[in-house]
């Protein structure tokens, strides 16, 4: 009996970890979505042609936010300024960088209503992908519990009790996803 409880505890811990991973991925995706405000993670997807290869912007420069609608990129190697400026412009973020000496100023233009609606749809898609990932983890957990019951390591009553716990964990995680999505949508729609 105690081995079965330990088996379920490790299963539940694994399921929780995998569900938490889905939430973390969602938060990273949301960080890359542009709102009307400047945020250093906005330039995370930018890759620069540097020294004969492509590398993330954060490996050739430092990004800071001196004001709510301005990013400042401090390029470490003066010879890389044009490449960094070009990479930001071509990243598809709708940004127009301007080089000033060793720094590049990136003003964050206000979002149009149309663009806000588009971003809200993208955020909703990210949220749905996270929910699907969590449901897949739940399904794996339920399948493992059925297998444990079939193998005789847990009773049918224990299986039902454990399934309720897995469902509760799923509901809590999906609630977290919904809350995160709601917050991001408000952030996007805020003028």
TrEMBL record:
* NCBIfam families listed in its UniProt record: frr
> What is the protein's given name?
Ribosome-recycling factor
- Per UniProt, which keywords does this protein have? Cytoplasm, Protein biosynthesis
Q: Name one GO molecular function term.
A: ribosomal large subunit binding
User: Can you name the source organism?
Assistant: Caenispirillum salinarum AK4
Q: What does this protein do, in the record's words?
A: Responsible for the release of ribosomes from messenger RNA at the termination of protein biosynthesis. May increase the efficiency of translation by recycling ribosomes from one round of translation to another.
Q: Which HAMAP family match?
A: RRF
Cellular compartment(s): Cytoplasm
Give me the Gene Ontology terms describing cellular component.
cytosol
Task: Identify the Pfam families for this entry.
Answer: RRF
GO biological process terms held by the UniProt record:
cytoplasmic translational termination
Q: What is its main location?
A: cytoplasm
Q: Where is the Ribosome recycling factor domain?
A: 26-189
Q: Which domain of life is it from?
A: Bacteria
The record's comment on protein family reads: Belongs to the RRF family.
């Amino acid at each position: 009996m105690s081995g079965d409880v330990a088996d379920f505890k490790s299963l539940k811990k694994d399921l929780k970890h995998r569900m938490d991973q889905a939430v973390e991925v969602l938060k990273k995706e949301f960080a890359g979505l542009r709102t009307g405000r400047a945020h250093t993670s906005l330039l995370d997807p930018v890759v620069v042609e540097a020294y004969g290869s492509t590398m993330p912007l954060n490996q050739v420069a430092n990004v800071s936010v001196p004001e709510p609608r301005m990013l400042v990129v401090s390029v470490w190697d003066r010879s890389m300024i044009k490449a960094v400026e070009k990479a930001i412009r071509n990243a598809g973020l709708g940004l127009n960088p301007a080089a000033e000496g060793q720094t590049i100023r990136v003003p964050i233009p206000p979002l149009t209503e149309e663009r806000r609606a588009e971003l809200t749809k993208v955020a909703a898609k990210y949220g749905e992908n996270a929910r699907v990932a969590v449901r897949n983890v739940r399904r794996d957990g339920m399948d493992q519990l059925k297998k444990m019951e079939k193998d005789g390591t847990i009773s049918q009553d224990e299986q039902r009790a454990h399934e309720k716990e897995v469902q509760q964990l799923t509901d809590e995680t999906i609630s977290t996803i919904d809350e995160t999505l709601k917050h991001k949508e408000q952030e996007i729609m805020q003028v």
